[in-house]
Design a protein that fits this description.
Elements lengths: L5 E4 L2 E4 L1 H11 L12 H16 L1 H14 L9 H22 L15 H11 L6 H8 L3 H14 L2 H5 L1 H19 L17
Antiparallel strand pairs: 1-2
Helix pairs in contact: 2-3, 2-5, 3-4
């Protein structure tokens, strides 16, 4: 399917991040139950978050970051109109996380006191916003204090792995900033094309 992320485990070849997370949580002994609970009602709520994620948060975040920041790295033009439409979906999704998915006394999604694969998936999606200029990132996340606290709770609960996995993201951000500075400092109309490769951590 030419998709990332993807894994190979023995004879199994699997793509799609949510399918991979579910497989990893079930296939290996010693995985704590809170990641993908045996309790069917808790498991169903996790699936509801993951299904919602694809058509809401993922759609808004990925489209916004691409059309606001990343497009030139792939040889594409920035698209302000597409970015504006994606921002509406992204902002609505962040509001829904804050008012619905983080409802309750728990620090994590669906009122849990411990993180699940849904927390990993959604927080990693929001971490894409680190690629944006600080002004845009603050404008988007600033109104959502509960979301910010949840991101930090997930970061703390999964360290040092969280920081390790996101090293590639911050490396891309650094490269984009360098390209932006080079572009700003160019004295002629000629620009050198740079492409940033994004590699699955898996």
């Amino acid at each position: 399917m030419a998709k990332v992320p993807a894994i190979v485990d023995g004879r199994l070849k699997l793509f799609e991040s949510h399918a991979i997370l579910i497989y990893l949580a079930c296939a290996f002994p010693g995985i704590a139950d809170h990641w993908y609970p045996n309790d069917l009602s808790k498991r169903a709520r996790i699936h509801s978050v993951l299904d919602w994620h694809h058509s809401n948060l993922r759609f808004g975040a990925a489209k916004f970051v691409l059309n606001k920041k990343l497009a030139p790295a792939f040889g594409l033009p920035l698209n302000p109109e597409a970015a504006a439409e994606a921002e509406k979906i992204l902002s609505s999704s962040l509001s829904k996380i804050e008012s619905f998915w983080l409802k309750g006394s728990g620090r994590f999604l669906v009122g849990s006191n411990q993180p699940s694969i849904a927390d990993i998936s959604l927080v990693c999606e929001i971490m894409e916003l680190e690629l944006l200029d600080e002004e845009d990132r603050t404008r988007l996340l600033g109104p959502h204090k509960k979301v910010q606290e949840w991101i930090e709770s997930t970061r703390r609960a999964t360290r040092p792995h969280f920081d390790e996995v996101h090293k590639v993201l911050f490396k891309v951000k650094e490269n984009l900033q360098k390209q932006q500075l080079l572009g700003t400092g160019a004295s002629s109309g000629t620009a050198t094309s740079h492409k940033t490769s994004l590699h699955s951590k898996i």
